[in-house]
Amino acid sequence: xxxxxxxxxxxxxxxxxxxxxxxxxxxxxxxxxxxxxxxxxxxxxxxxxxxxxxxxxxxxxxxxxxxxxxxxxxxxxxxxxxxxxxxxxxxxxxxxxxxxxxxxxxxxxxxxxxxxxxxxxxxxxxxxxxxxxxxxxxxxxxxxxxxxxxxxxxxxxxxxxxxxxxxxxxxxxxxxxxxxxxxxxxxxxxxxxxxxxxxxxxxxxxxxxxxxxxxxxxxxxxxxxxxxxxxxxxxxxxxxxxxxxxxxxxxxxxxxxxxxxxxxxxxxxxxxxxxxxxxxxxxxxxxxxxxxxxxxxxxxxxxxxxxxxxxxxxxxxxxxxxxxxxxxxxxxxxxxxxxxxxxxxxxxxxxxxxxxxxxxxxxxxxxxxxxxxxxxxxxxxxxxxxxxxxxxxxxxxxxxxxxxxxxxx
Length: 409
Ligand code: FAD
Prior knowledge:
The chain is built from eleven helices and 26 strands. By secondary structure, the protein is an alpha/beta fold.
């Protein structure tokens, strides 16, 4: 094994976890990780939260500092874009022409922010929220009193709105659908977050259709119906495009992500993949899924690392996610699609903490908790078990959830 070389493409959280776990599991060969960005692997969640709000330093985002990678003999090469995989020769080639041979290859290429396909949306003051460089560019515009338009009412847009509002920026958030977070949660949760943003001063609008951008740099956005919103800059948060081109060009199976089996191997047994770029089987969901979450990047990355070291373990997990906006922490577990009953614990109209449980045929399949870490902890257990709990008891706040968890176990 000591003769072998593992090459990782993509220095995000999935990539570094795969490299580090292979080492932890006793892999003694060479480990080289290539990243297109200049920074060592870093955590993205704080980008739209503490880093944008100016309360976190760049170094605090690093998953592993260069000195620690060196200590574990993980060779990190930054500013290095891998442009080609030659599967027959088992080599990769970089944009600058350098090449590197591998015994096992890991694709952890993540994704890139979806661009708004509209004339004018490529102007100099239109930004996305994906990298440290993106946030630096946005921050340069975030002086108190400045006006920003955020396009997209998903997690990234809402978190960006909260952080920029904290900096004194006047934010207008435009969502095309009838409510924010429409793809991931129930209307009562969307309404709660819409209210929280409006109360904090965000001009949040739903059902909005953008007609065009004026100027470069953009000075105003026009809406269908004729309204004109003047702005100093624009932030677009309309989703992610998985980086699959490298895999696709190499002839690997790609279908809404790089397709992997339960051992995280691609259609080439010497090439694994992990993180946002993968379409992987999930026993809990009963099908294939592509997730965009840190938990998946970390755990799938570790699963790859274990399998690279010869463990041959299937990857299995119940998905969970979180989002911080203002003083609110939303935590979600499971996938609520297909639920036939919703149970609310607490009062979203009057309180800033409550939980929503999703049942299907009586079984708990998902839960969303707002600023209720204890409830979330128990919900994770209940969802993992597919617990059957009397909805009336679930809604009854006089019965501690802990008691119901024990009863269901
Ligand atoms: P990425 O983080 O995308 O890393 C992939 C890396 O590979 C990138 O650095 C890319 O440049 C590099 N790369 C791609 N192609 C090549 C190539 N050909 N050659 C070399 N390098 C290449 N998730 C949560 O669970 N909770 C949150 O609160 C949360 N908040 C978020 C906030 C923001 C602003 C963003 C952007 C994401 C957030 N996420 C959150 C999602 C989470 O950060 C991602 O799911 C996670 O970072 C995925 O990790 P990854 O390693 O798979 O991919």
